[in-house]
Amino acid sequence: MKNRTRSAIAAIVAVPLVLGTASCSQDAGGDDGDITTIEIMGKPAATNTAALELFEKQVAEFEDLNPDIRIEASDVPWDAKTFVTRLAGGSAPTLLRVPLTEPPSLIERGQVADLSAELADVESFDALNPRVMEFLEEDGAVYGIPEKSYAFGLVYNRTLFEQAGLDPDAPPTTWDEVREAAKAITEKTGKVGFGEITTNNSGGWHLTGYTYTYGGSVIEQGSDGTWTASFNDEPTKDVLEWWKQMRWEDDSLGDNVLGKQEDLVAEFTAGNVGMWISAPPDVYPNYIASGGDPEAFGAGAMPQGGADATLAGATVLMVNAKATDAERAAAVKWMDYRALRPNYDTEVAAETAKASAADGLPVGVPVLPIFDDKTYASYTDAISEYVNVDVDHFASYVDSLGSLEYVAEPPVASQEIYAALDPLVQAILTDESADIDSLLDDAETRVNAILAQNAS
Amino acid sequence: MTIAPPGLRDAPAPRVAEATAPPPARRRGRGSARRRAAVAGAVFLLPSLVLFGYFAWWPIGRSVVLAFQRTNLVSPAEWVGTANFDALFADPLLPTAALNTLWFSVLSLAIGLPIPLLCAVLISELRRGGTLARVLSYLPVVVPPVVSVLLWKTFFNPGEGGVVNSLLGLVGIGPLPWLQSPELAMPSLVIVATWSGAGTAILIYLAALSGVPSEQYEAAELDGASVWQRVRFVTLPRLRGVILVLLLLQIIGALQVFTEPYVMTDGGPANATVTILLMIYRYAFLFGNYGVATALSVLLAGVLVVVSAVYLRVTRSWSTS
């Protein structure tokens, strides 16, 4: 082959290769003429077929109602380990669905858009729960809305309760009672009495929630505005001591304590765990979708150590700061359509409930409402005829929602703090001779270092 | 290792060129042909240069710069001098992670070096079923890393019903807590890493073994050498070069261990399996602190360069003797 021919072939091969690489960086969403395409989070997982069908139906209806908007939905959930990078790298969707721990840092870093103008037109915006909204508003700007809120409670297996000779209608309400019940379940059934999780920040999350029930806190703000660790005191020590007794004296926590929430949901669904702490309304749909027995599910009040308080949080919807005006408006329309309207528009609520019930999805799971009491009452009235969940099994949890004080998660560096507390919890649960005081000192130093770095 | 015998390397190329130099009248034509060839070569090289430059050298250069900056990859980066390194050295987890990584490396060399070598020697001695043994030994490498790690996580279930504990129970050992124990978690990870990586090393050793002339074994046998003496005086000296390269690769790989602790233990229990790479990952992708993450990456890369250089220098005479 002649040199010239070879050069020509090389150029033919090389040029598209280089151009092809360069063209890979185009964005998925955007404005295409009159059509605005938005990428959204929150599509149910493919395994949750009924919820996915309902979601797809809602997308189709929404697109019919808004012919100028196209939805591209993603079932990739928020993940503490990848979200920051996706957002920074520009590959995060237009509509973000994140836990309530995230908004402060997202707002501070300018990664989410101010939605005040768009939200002003949304009906019932003023009826949203102010206790959640305070995390989403800053200097008069509104950065998001809650999709759902939760409060910690006791999730328990009614069948195992019966087998252990416990009353499934009267779940334990204090940590001492939980310890006794766990011991009974392990002794009588051979199953794990009380399940615990300690990886992927869940150990720190639970330690925080349990500490609140003893009246403690994880971080506190000084008069000069700086934050410091505040957990190296009695309330947290009580929690750690309680864990230690359960693990090493009663042997009611089981052998496997190095897992995350998903692992425990699977074990609980399989009927291998008596009790654990989570947000019951969040757990229930996954439990049912995975084939859990509805009759065995029980939700109780968050066990207390004397403070009558529980950790409360929410899943919130925000919009990527990189969104165009049209994308932002489209995203808010979708937020209203999917997340808000079914909660305040009684007609839509009834329709959604009817469709969900027909598809075998749980309807009427008692939740911590995102709207005020009046709006929530009219919502529950509207869906009452379609309720297919045994609300009695949630009685203790529902009662607690009215009586316990809600305490929010740490407002700064929450995920980093949880990550720093995981090893502390793991040490207590995997090392019989773990020294609580020195572990707390170490964790305090580490959390203070995180807070100092965060402030600088 | 040498590429060509010294005699060849010093071949008198210029004299050859001189002797065959074209007459002056044709020089021009030859020159432009050479230029064309050079241009063609450059065009062929260009895609690789662009791809390597864009995806490898540019990020490497950027990461060194990033180690001295603070950025959230949204707002413009800000120069912070050595603040990232200061924050890193103030992190009490760094010594723990460094020691854990070293411990993993020592364990994985102690277990991961002799086992593949032994397997390769045994397989090469097989009269029958050699191919099957090769396939079986390589099979774990084909399993995607995350799948094999999750599989082993199930095997290491701490109860009596766990696969490993059930097997050990047959000989009266256990049940052991494996991943749930700060002492046993790291050795458990090394077992998994060895299981997943041994197949490649076995194949390389086997290829090297096939290059050992059978006459040398026959001569050794005639001289009355035992099996061990044949391995010691014939096999190992012939494999020395391969062993050295694999050892270096294993050291570098072990110092960069990530998948096993990330998927199996998330660094737990109680930081017993936090490694340097897991720290880098957390800094970058959990805390969004890219400056400190890259500072640690640059440090690790520096350590690896030094380790490799020292290793090659120390073993140079050994490998060529």
What is the compact description of this entry?
The complex is a heterodimer of chains A (456) and B (321). With 456 residues, chain A is an alpha+beta fold.
Could you characterize the architecture of this molecule?
Chain A: This is ABC-type glycerol-3-phosphate transport system substrate-binding protein. Chain A: It comes from Labedella gwakjiensis. Chain A: Keywords: Signal. Chain A: Residues 1-28 form the signal peptide. Chain B: Residues 1-32 are annotated as: Disordered. The complex is a heterodimer of chains A (456) and B (321). With 456 residues, chain A is α+β, with helices and mostly antiparallel strands. Chain A has two domains: 36-151 and 314-359, Periplasmic binding protein-like II (D-Maltodextrin-Binding Protein, domain 2, 3-Layer(aba) Sandwich), CATH 3.40.190.10; 153-311 and 403-454, D-Maltodextrin-Binding Protein, domain 2. Chain A is 47% helix and 16% strand. Chain A is built from 18 helices and 15 strands. In chain A, helix 2 links the parallel strand 2 (35-41) and strand 3. The longest helix of chain A is centred in the first third of the chain and has 20 residues, at 3-22. Chain A is globular. The N and C termini of chain A lie far apart (65 Å). Chain B is mainly α. Chain B has a domain at 96-315: MetI-like fold (Orthogonal Bundle), CATH 1.10.3720. Helix content of chain B is 74%, strand content 1%. Chain B has a two-stranded antiparallel sheet with strand order 1-2. In chain B, strand 1 and strand 2 form a beta hairpin. In chain B, helix 5 packs across helix 10 (185-210). The longest helix of chain B is centred in the N-terminal third of the chain and has 40 residues, at 27-66. Chain B is globular, with a radius of gyration of 26 Å. The N and C termini of chain B lie close together (10 Å). Residues 1-22 of chain B have low confidence and may be disordered. Classes of the chains: A alpha+beta (456), B mainly alpha (321).
